[in-house]
Amino acid sequence: MTNSEKLQELFERLDEIEAYSRCLGKVQFDMECCAPEEGIEQAGADMSILGKYLYTLTHAERFEQLVTELHADGEGLTPVQKKAVEHLYDGYARVKNISAELSFEMDTVANKAYGDWLKAKKASDFSLFRDSLAALIDYNRKAIDLRDEKKASYYDTCLNDLEKGGSMEQLDAFFAALRKRIVPLLRRIQTEGKPIREDFMTRPVPIPQQEAMSRYLLELEGLRKSALVLMTTEHPFTDNFGPHDVRVTTHYHEDSFISNVFTTLHEGGHALFMQNEPAELHENHGANNMSNAMHETISRFYENLVGRSEEFISYVAPKIRELAGGTFDDISDRELYEAVNVARPSLIRTEADELSYCLHIMVRYELEKAFMNGEITVDEIPALWNAKYKEYLGIEVPDDARGCLQDVHWCGYAFGYFPSYALGNAYGVQILRRMQRDFDVFGAIREGELSLIRDWLIEHVFSIASLSTPDEWIRSITGESLNVNYYLDYLEEKFSRIYELK
Amino acid sequence: MTNSEKLQELFERLDEIEAYSRCLGKVQFDMECCAPEEGIEQAGADMSILGKYLYTLTHAERFEQLVTELHADGEGLTPVQKKAVEHLYDGYARVKNISAELSFEMDTVANKAYGDWLKAKKASDFSLFRDSLAALIDYNRKAIDLRDEKKASYYDTCLNDLEKGGSMEQLDAFFAALRKRIVPLLRRIQTEGKPIREDFMTRPVPIPQQEAMSRYLLELEGLRKSALVLMTTEHPFTDNFGPHDVRVTTHYHEDSFISNVFTTLHEGGHALFMQNEPAELHENHGANNMSNAMHETISRFYENLVGRSEEFISYVAPKIRELAGGTFDDISDRELYEAVNVARPSLIRTEADELSYCLHIMVRYELEKAFMNGEITVDEIPALWNAKYKEYLGIEVPDDARGCLQDVHWCGYAFGYFPSYALGNAYGVQILRRMQRDFDVFGAIREGELSLIRDWLIEHVFSIASLSTPDEWIRSITGESLNVNYYLDYLEEKFSRIYELK
Q: Any idea of the CA torsion for B488, B491, B494, B500, to the nearest 10 degrees?
């Protein structure tokens, strides 16, 4: 059998696997955006049934054989095909020793954990989530123990899974650099910063107007409308059923009109990435292999570097005033710009300002490191969480709901995911600086010409993401490895100016 | 192996089959209500892939064996279980000789037909749909030829599939009776009827207000909100993912506020049926086995017998005026009642009034009979359609889009479906008369006490539908077989009063 025939057979199997994944994904999407309350349980049970067949497809001996053989000998494959096979091989190596039983148990634990977490968060009672979290950590470590290839620690394995080449060594240095400059900057703002007016931020705007704003922003970002859906959900996310079907979801609150602008820009950034990988990647089952940090780079690029810039606010302010029907007519562009950039330590990560955001991540990083590597027990999490919020952000955590229960990530074994957001922030500024050498980015933003940014990202960033490790990627785009100073310089410059620090 | 063990095994297989069907159904629902334009093609391809596996489940030898054996010997099964097995056996007998290839070809023809029909309707050019329709008829006849059991004709087979015991003999008599009294009544209205004011019917009302009206009506009908979804789509329908997840869809037009009231009531009627079959039927895979006419009985009961009654209009008129924000303040309840009952021959079935509706069905019935049984060729359909509209409704059909291309049903092999609507109309009035012996139905409607109707239907109608043939069903409810005179008397009385015929 030639390599070309093997690849053909592998691709046919992938067509089937991906069809199942998309259908399951749509049932999940339906659960989150459409299904009625009583229908959730049945949907979960149905997904388990289809999931079992999907498991047999992804764990078929022949599938393993094709991936392994093509990985060992890629003669005749194009570079894109080689990368696609490599990615499959990596993914396969992680799960190949996990039995069907263990896989099913892991899913069951995760499903139960989600329900427990919801209850625990509602009751603000960590003890209701404690056992599930312990089981999640335990199963995750079990699954790592089964791997052929070993890393220095459990948490190193998690980090490397999500960002190839990532490690505690790299992230310890990264967060130390952030801490060193962000913590004092935030303290200076609190003591020396000028007061910023923000009373108008919660003025109510009707939901249909907010939805019109979201549609306007997604179009402004340069998304293809014919391949885009906008829906509402409890927790905003972006979903991907191939480049022809990308779904942005958001949540509207009457008194959070302005805040929804940034949620939409963030999710729209994810959607832009999903719509715009090269066709060759999709045709060769090699798309969507970028790391989470790469994805968060783009979402936070649009949310913060574009969205919270003075140029962008000036461009969209008239639209905001128009859709709000007079509600913001007495607010100047500059007042709006300053208000969306208020930097103040707070309890909730997703509502954090651009400056203190990374400190929220740092707390989670240090906790994950400790409990994944067995340095602390599950029971120690709440107190340690609260102590770190006090230390880095200077605030008291009043309860677990606004403390260690606030995020859903751990329910899905997403240990090591949080650092992606912080890395994304730093990659973003480094990429912005490179982009500025090619054209006047903020001049374009001031004119609403966001298609220039999209097109630059398509050419330099989206085109190679699924083919690269994070380090290869950032070096290819900017000529150097991740350099956190671009980001820290940016923060210092921006916030010193806003708060008129001497 | 005992029957109880066999049943257990059969039910496990049905759990899997139904899980696949529901997931596929949700992907289909997603296509119609959520997916972006570019995503439709991929969704269709994904459904074909899952459909192939579903085919292997429903055509597994062991599945056939279990159904056949339990059908031949149902010792120890409960009556509900016996009926469930009987229904499975009937369904299986229809398709068991259809090969996987033929089944796939039939699906391919139907998928192509849908696209061709859309194009043909848009261009108002029957020739674009002609070949597909010919193939649909041809494949449908081929599939019927493969059955072990033969009926008198192809169309008799179609009718019996959809309404057990149904035949051309029964329906010829049924439609002859309708024609005899409806055609002259409609003529009298046109010549002698008093003029009815209806200029206000197209006054625009904003979509969010219309959506609020739909939600109000669904709640009024007595639907469980926690098991209900309301969404928008191009062509309204109701979808069913079990009694805990029922989906009503409708389409809003600013100038069709009043007309949407009846669409919602109709779809809500379907939803009530879906939410309220007995738990024992669901637990034994015996639900949803009612005939289409039974389903249309309920939807048209709420749309017409309830919705277009003077008592209902009086009850909802204040809500209509409130939501329309003054738009209908100058219209009296009586004017509104008369306007929603204007009887006038028209071109489009779905927009037809209560009186002329059955004539639209009659045209389709006579055409289906002729082409299914080979009495006319596909090419003769448009001219014959137009001639029958002239004969029964007295109107000229200006083009095929508003003629024989208006309905989607034939694209899905739904030959013989249309009579269900007419039968439903007639069953409905017969059931209403029986219901009136138990309580003051229109008194309850006048007070908005629609839960009395729902509860009566749950007890007398929904409880036995999936366990009965249509004739057993109507006899069990009313004590006699279908008697079209209740319906015709109702029409004559209602419309003579509205139009003040002497």
A: -100
Q: Does the CB of B152 have a partner CB in chain A at under 8 Å?
A: no
* Confidence (pLDDT) at B234: 80
Structural domain boundaries enclosing A360: 168-498
d(CA A166, CA A422): 13
Q: Phi, psi at residue B444, to the nearest 5°? A: -65, -40
Length of chain A: 502
B342-361 pLDDT, tens digit per residue, is 999 999 998 899 999 999 99
Q: Residue B380: give its domain's CATH number.
A: 1.10.1370.30
* Backbone dihedral angles phi then psi of residue B240, each to the nearest 5 degrees: -135, 115
H/E run at residue B45: helix B40-58
Interface with chain B: mutation pick from A241, A248, A252, A275, highest number of B CBs within 10 Å? A241
Please check whether residue A270 is in contact with residue A298, taking contact to mean a CB–CB distance below 8 angstroms.
yes
Q: How many domains does chain B have?
A: 2
**Domain closes at, from A59, A93, A125:** A125
Give yes or no for a contact between B306 and B453, defined as CB atoms under 8 angstroms apart: yes
Residue B72 CA: distances (Å) to CA of A317, B3, B14: 75, 11, 19
Q: Which H or E element spans position B28?
A: helix B3-33
Residue B47, chain A, CB below 8 Å: the answer is: yes
Q: Which of A129-143, A216-230, B14-28, B87-101 has the lowest mean pLDDT?
A: B87-101
Point out the domain boundary residue: A66, A95, A125.
A125
Which residues in chain A touch residue B53, judged by CB atoms under 8 angstroms apart? 53
Q: Which ranges constitute the DSSP H helices of A163-256?
A: 168-192, 207-221
Give the separation between CA B193 and CA B206, rounded to whole angstroms.
34
Q: Based on the fold, state whether residues A414 and A483 are members of the same structural domain.
A: yes
Q: Are B113 and B135 in contact (CB under 8 A)?
A: yes
Of B53, B224, B245, the CB nearest to A42: B245
Residues A119, A177 share a domain: no
For residue A49, list chain B residues with Cβ-Cβ distance below 8 A.
15-16, 19-20
Which band of pLDDT confidence, cut at 50, 70 and 90, is reported for residue A334? very high
Say whether both A104 and A216 belong to one domain.
no
